[in-house]
Amino acid sequence: MSETVLAVKALARSFEQGGVRIDVLRGIDFTIGHGEIVALLGPSGSGKSTMLQAVGLLEGGFSGSIAIDGEEVGSLESDARTRIRRDHLGFVYQFHHLLPDFSAKENVVIPQLIRGATYADAEKRAASLLNRLGLGHRLEHRPSQLSGGEQQRVAVGRALANKPSLVLADEPTGNLDEATADIVLAEFLKLVREEGSAALIATHNERLAKKTDRLVRLHEGRLE
Fold first, then answer.
1. Which of 3, 27, 50, 69 is deepest in the core (most CB within 10 A)?
2. Which GO terms describe its biological process (predicted)?
3. How far, in Å, are 96, 119, 143, 177 from residue 153 at the CA level?
């Protein structure tokens, strides 16, 4: 396995708006090593989400190279991109996007079933992850019965369910109050480190960003 979980080279993305070309990403070169947690810092509109969409293979229209676990993935067809997302990536968003009709445990079980795990194995791992996130007493509760911080913890467990090489988090605590955000971020970082995953966390919060292993800034489409 490559020592680098993510390597992007000359990554660029432009939009046309009102006949004007807008360069959101301008030839970014960037790597993340296995197990490394990196904060991607920048104000709203700086291109953080666009960069995560590129790395997460969620949107086309990018130029440049994207390699995950040593495999060039930026030019893959749709089915192969889906495989990479399923087998190598985990996602945490500002809003949890949990399935409302399923329990906390089931929300963490389902991604594992999609990947081919047995229900027994998926249920065991889901319970383990949620216990480690302090939700052992809430396994059978549906999202509507959970607080915002609890819902986001479930989303963290879901992101790590398939043991991804890389977790991509877009303002993962941006919808929480400061005290709850601190707790959820601490649990998120602890669990990611215990699982041995790498993480790229987009945020505009410098205080939170300083708790990661490395901080990079996105400014006018380039990394500093």
1. 50
2. lipoprotein localization to outer membrane; protein localization to outer membrane
3. 9, 21, 11, 14
119-132 and 178-195 are packed helices; what angle lies between their axes, rounded to 10 degrees?
Answer: 130
**Cα–Cα distance for residue pair 95/79, rounded to 1 Å:** 26
Closest CA to 191 of 214, 223, 157: 157
- Domains of the chain, first to last: 36-60+76-223 (3.40.50.300)
Are the CB atoms for 203 and 8 separated by under 8 Å? no
Take residue 94 and report the two structure tokens written for it.
């500002």
Q: From the CB of residue 140, how many other CB atoms can be counted at a distance below 10 Å?
A: 10
Closest CA to 188 of 159, 210, 163, 214: 159
b vs e for 180-193, b when ≥16 Cβ sit within 10 Å of the residue's Cβ? Answer: bbeebbebbbebbe
Distance, CA of 112 to CA of 126 (rounded, Å): 9
